[in-house]
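Minutes, methods subgroup
Present: GH (chair), OT, SY

1. OT presented the first of two proteins processed in the latest run. Sequence and structure tokens recorded below as shown on screen.
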Amino acid sequence: MAEQKQKLSRSRSRKRRGQDKISSVKLIQCTKCKSKIPSHMVCPVCGTYKNQELVKTSTIKTKVTSKKAEKSRRSEEVRDPDQKASGEAKESSETNGSETKSE
């Protein structure tokens, strides 16, 4: 493996690495609906690309809403078992407490 002849100074190596930055995504306006979209992409709002309708908008909206519905359903499923378990525990402790008080 090759060895360097001299140590690179901190400033010299940082000058070189200063060019290695990530640029932000360039957003353009859709010609039909005027929403902001990345260049060279089909508009998710109206489904057009270069003034041609490539995707029906009802299909796009359905996919987006179905993904949101699925995500919310998953989050509810995660919450429900905890709530049911804690609710059952509270009910059983309340019934046990009332039995001991009446006796």
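2. SY then presented the second protein from the same run.
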Amino acid sequence: MNGNHLVKDFIDLLPEKDQKKISSLLRLAAKRGSLKNPEKSKKLHSDKQINIYEFKSKPYRILYTFFGEKTIILSHGFSKGAKIKNEIKRAQGFFNQLFEEKKK
């Protein structure tokens, strides 16, 4: 992409306690793949091109999708109060651009 690290930058701005909780959640997902606990992860959007999921660590969210069966790609993070439809559109744009670049 363009060299941005949206999720890392988001996490770095959080209080240390929240950084640890989110980092732990992401490590668990990296180890297991999809998380089955709907309190921690769930599908938000599905269409013919992409499924978008969220990792949840109160009050924060990180949107992601899968590339293939085991690779998780993170889009960006935000606080719970954000308009979820806007955040899903933002993630769709990010993933569509990424997958188009992968095709080249």
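Chair's summary of item 2: The chain has three helices and four strands.
Next meeting: continue with the remaining queue.
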